[in-house]
Write a structure and sequence with these properties.
By secondary structure, the chain is an alpha/beta fold. The chain folds into four domains: 90 residues, Gyrase A, domain 2; 161 residues, 3-Layer(aba) Sandwich (Rossmann fold); 111 residues, no CATH class; 117 residues, Isoleucyl-tRNA Synthetase, Domain 1 (Orthogonal Bundle). It is built from 21 helices and 15 strands. The strands form four sheets. It has a five-stranded parallel sheet. The longest helix has 42 residues. It is globular. It binds one RNA strand of 77 nucleotides through helix 2, helix 6, strand 9, strand 10 and helix 12.
Length: 586
RNA sequence: GCGCCCGUAGUUCAGCUGGAUAGAAUAUCGGUCUCCGACACCGAAGGUCACAGGUUCGAAUCCUGUCGGGCGCGCCA
C-alpha cells in the first residue's frame, strides 16, 4: 500500500518536472506515513514540505500542484491537503479488503518478499568461547541474531548464519589445563586449583569422563606439576603468570599429542553442549567457523602480511603493531606479542578479511555491548587492507538483567554464579525466552522479569498473542461442533459485509504486516514485529468480545471466518519469524 | 580522565529515522460472562519527553553543554 502511494507521488513529480511546472531537486526518498488520526485519512505524505525550499514555493501551493498531477488510482478515494502542507490520502475500503484473500492464498509466504534480491548477507552471532555453557547474556544475542537473520531471509536476502568458534588461543589453553588439573585431583593428587582456572562443575564432569576413559594415563605427580611454578595470587604472585606457567607445564609433561587429547575433550564436550543448547532454542547455523582452521590455513599470517605490505605495521619493543590510529582508532594495537604469539585481534582481522573474501555483500556481527571498543579497530584493519568497512555492521546487544520476585538476580562470572541459558529456558520456556529477548531494542538495557515470562496470564505478552491464535482455532473447532460450515471462497466474496469498525481496523492491521516485516528486517529491529503482533492480537480479542462470528447468515459468517483465519495466519507467520510457537490450543 | 550506549506515565517500554493532540503494557480505581475459551473486553486516572541553550515552518527525535545510569579503555580472549 505504501509502495503504491510512493509510486503515485513519484509519477506526479516526474510529470511536473517534465512539463517544467516544477523545478526542484528530486527527494532522496518519498516517505509515506500511517496517520495517527483518522480524520487525516489513512496515509500522509510530507514531500511538499520537504521540497518547498528547493522548489522555492510555499508547501501548500506545492502540494496543490502535486495533487493535481497525481495519476488515477482505484485504491484512493480522496486526497486532501492539510496542516502546513501534508498530502493526506483516504483509501477506498476495497483497497484494504483484498488483503484477506491475499493472506489466505499465500499462507506462510504472506509477508515474505524479494526485496533483498538474493544478496548474500552473513550474520555472525553468539560466538561465545567454548570454555563453558552459554549464559543468559549469550541468550539475548542468540535470540536477537537468529531473528535478525530470519527477518532478512524473509525479505529475500540469502542469509549465512555463522558461529565463530574460538577453539584456539589462551582461554582454551586455560580450559584444557583446568580439565587436566581436575583430572589429577580425581587421580588422587593434591592440587591447589589456580585462581584463574575455570571452576565450574562442568570442568569436573569433563575431568571425570577423561579419567573414566583413560585411567591414570595422563597422571603426573603434583610435585612435578608445580615444581618451580611462580606463586598464584593468594600466595602473593601474579595469577596470569601462574596460569601461563601451568599451561606450559601441562604441554611439557603431557607432550603434544596427549595435551591435544585433553584439550580437545574439553573443547568438544562444551561445543557439543552449546550446539545442543542453541538447537533446542530454535537457533540454527549454516556454519561453525573454527578459529584453529583459520590459523592453520595461514589466513592470519596472510592478513598480517597484507597490513605490512600496505605499510601499516611497525615493530616496537619486540612486538608487532598495527597503526590503527591512522584510521581513527584511539591507540595502536599489537598483532604479534613479543613472545611470538599472535593476539586474538590478529585472528579477528584475518576472520573479517576472510568474510569479505567469501563474497558477502553485507557482513553483520552481533556482539555484546561490552565489546563496543573493538568496532573501530576491526573497521580500521579492513580499511587498512583496502577493504570496504561499510560492508560491516556491528550490532551491539546490551545485557539483560534478570528479576525474580521483584529482586535483581545477582550474577557474576568470576564466582561462577551466572545463570545459564539452559536454566532460563527450563524456567520460563523457549517461547517466552525468545519473545522477551527481542521485545526490546537491542541497544536498550533490558529488565527481564522471570515471573512475568513464566506466568500463564494476560500480563504475559507471549501468552496474549498465542491465545489469540488458539482462540481462532477454537472458534473453528466450535464451528464443527455446531454443525456449521465454512466456505472460504464464499467468505472472500462477502468481504464487503465487514463494515464494523473492529473489522476495518483488523483488515488495515493485516495490510501493515509486510511493511512491518520489511522495516524490522532492514533496520535490524525485531521488536517492531513483536509489538505489531501484540497489537494484532489485541485487535482480534477486541473483535471477539464485540461480535459473534458463528452467526446464522452464512455470507457474513464466511466473511468473518475468512478474516479471523487471515489474522491467525499472520500471527502464525509473525511468531514463526520470532522463533515462537503458535499453538492451536493452550 | 577519554570514548560508546541510555535517560519518555508509579514501573517496564514504544514512538515508523524531523511531522499534526507523545502512545501501549503493567500497577491503581470502576465496569462486562445464560453468549464462539474471562488466558478476554470496556472505561477512568496517570507526562515540564533528565536539565539548559541552539538549528527551522515544526524537535522526544539533529547540534552543543550540564546532570544521572551502564559499559569499555591490556603485548586477555
Amino acid at each position: 500500500m505504501k509502495h503504491h502511494l510512493q509510486q503515485l507521488i513519484s509519477t506526479a513529480l516526474d510529470t511536473l518536472r517534465a512539463s517544467g511546472a516544477l523545478d526542484c531537486t528530486a527527494p532522496d526518498s518519498i516517505v509515506i506515513e500511517h496517520t495517527r488520526d483518522k480524520s487525516h485519512g489513512d496515509f500522509a505524505c510530507n514531500v511538499a514540505m520537504l521540497l518547498a525550499k528547493s522548489a522555492k514555493r510555499k508547501p501548500r501551493e506545492l502540494a496543490e500542484l502535486i495533487v493535481g498531477a497525481l495519476p488515477e488510482s482505484g485504491k484512493v478515494s480522496k486526497v486532501e491537503i492539510a496542516g502546513p502542507g501534508f498530502i493526506n490520502f483516504f483509501m477506498s475500503p476495497a483497497a484494504f479488503t483484498t488483503v484477506v484473500g491475499e493472506v489466505l492464498e499465500r499462507g506462510e509466504a504472506f509477508g515474505r518478499s524479494t526485496l533483498g534480491n538474493g544478496k548474500r548477507v552473513q550474520v555472525e552471532f553468539v560466538s561465545a568461547n567454548p570454555t563453558g555453557p552459554l549464559h543468559v547474556g549469550h541468550g539475548r544475542g542468540a535470540a536477537y541474531g537468529a531473528t535478525v537473520a530470519d527477518l532478512l531471509a524473509a525479505v529475500g536476502f540469502q542469509v549465512h548464519r555463522e558461529y565463530y568458534v574460538n577453539d584456539a588461543g589462551r582461554q582454551m589453553d586455560i580450559l584444557g589445563t583446568s580439565v587436566w588439573l581436575r583430572y589429577l585431583d580425581l587421580c588422587g593428587e593434591t592440587i591447589p586449583f589456580p585462581v584463574n582456572g575455570y571452576k565450574g562443575d562442568y570442568v569436573w564432569d569433563i575431568a571425570a569422563s577423561l579419567h573414566r576413559e583413560n585411567g591414570d594415563a595422563f597422571r603426573h605427580p603434583a610435585a612435578a606439576v608445580f615444581q618451580d611454578i611462580s606463586p598464584d595470587e593468594p600466595a602473593g604472585g601474579d595469577k596470569e603468570i601462574h596460569i601461563d606457567e601451568l599451561i606450559a607445564r601441562a604441554k611439557e609433561l603431557l607432550g603434544a599429542a596427549s595435551y591435544r587429547q585433553v584439550f580437545d575433550l574439553g573443547l568438544n564436550t562444551i561445543l557439543a553442549d552449546i550446539k545442543q543448547d542453541l538447537e533446542e532454542f530454535g537457533v540454527a547455523y549454516e556454519e561453525w567457523y573454527s578459529e584453529r582452521t583459520l590459523v592453520e590455513s595461514g589466513k592470519v599470517d596472510e592478513a598480517i602480511k597484507r597490513l605490512q605490505a600496505a605499510g601499516h605495521v611497525y615493530e616496537q619493543e619486540g612486538a608487532l603493531w598495527f597503526r590503527s590510529t591512522a584510521f581513527g582508532d584511539e591507540k595502536d594495537r599489537v598483532v604479534v606479542r613479543d613472545n611470538g604469539v599472535k593476539t586474538y585481534f590478529a585472528s579477528d582481522i584475518a576472520y573479517h578479511m576472510e568474510k569479505l573474501e567469501r563474497g558477502f555483500e553485507r557482513v553483520i556481527d552481533v556482539w555484546g555491548a561490552d565489546h563496543h571498543g573493538y568496532v573501530p579497530r576491526v573497521k580500521a584493519a579492513l580499511t587498512a587492507m583496502g577493504d570496504d568497512p561499510s560492508k560491516l555492521d556491528v550490532l551491539l546487544v546490551q545485557f539483560a538483567i534478570l528479576y525474580r520476585g521483584g529482586e535483581r538476580v545477582q550474577m557474576s562470572t568470576r564466582s561462577g554464579s551466572f545463570v545459564t541459558l539452559r536454566e532460563l529456558r527450563d524456567e520460563v520456556g523457549n517461547d517466552a525466552a525468545r519473545f522477551f529477548y527481542v521485545l526490546r531494542k537491542c541497544e536498550q538495557h533490558m529488565d527481564f522479569d522471570l515471573d512475568l515470562a513464566k506466568s500463564q496470564s494476560a500480563d504475559n505478552p507471549v501468552y496474549y498473542i498465542q491465545y489469540a491464535h488458539a482462540r481462532v482455532c477454537s472458534v473453528m473447532r466450535q464451528l464443527g461442533e455446531k454443525g456449521l460450515s465454512y466456505d472460504q471462497a464464499a467468505g472472500l466474496k462477502h468481504l464487503h459485509l465487514l463494515t464494523e469498525s473492529h473489522e476495518q481496523e483488523l483488515i488495515q492491521a493485516l495490510t501493515r504486516y509486510p511493511e512491518v516485516v520489511e522495516a524490522a528486517a532492514l533496520s535490524h529491529e525485531p521488536h517492531q514485529l513483536a509489538h505489531y503482533l501484540r497489537e494484532l492480537a489485541n485487535g482480534l480479542h477486541t473483535y471477539y468480545n464485540a461480535h459473534q462470528f458463528l452467526v446464522d447468515d452464512s455470507g457474513l459468517r464466511d466473511a468473518r471466518l475468512a478474516l479471523i483465519n487471515a489474522v491467525r495466519q499472520v500471527i502464525h507467520n509473525g511468531l514463526s519469524l520470532l522463533g515462537v510457537s503458535a499453538p492451536e490450543s493452550m
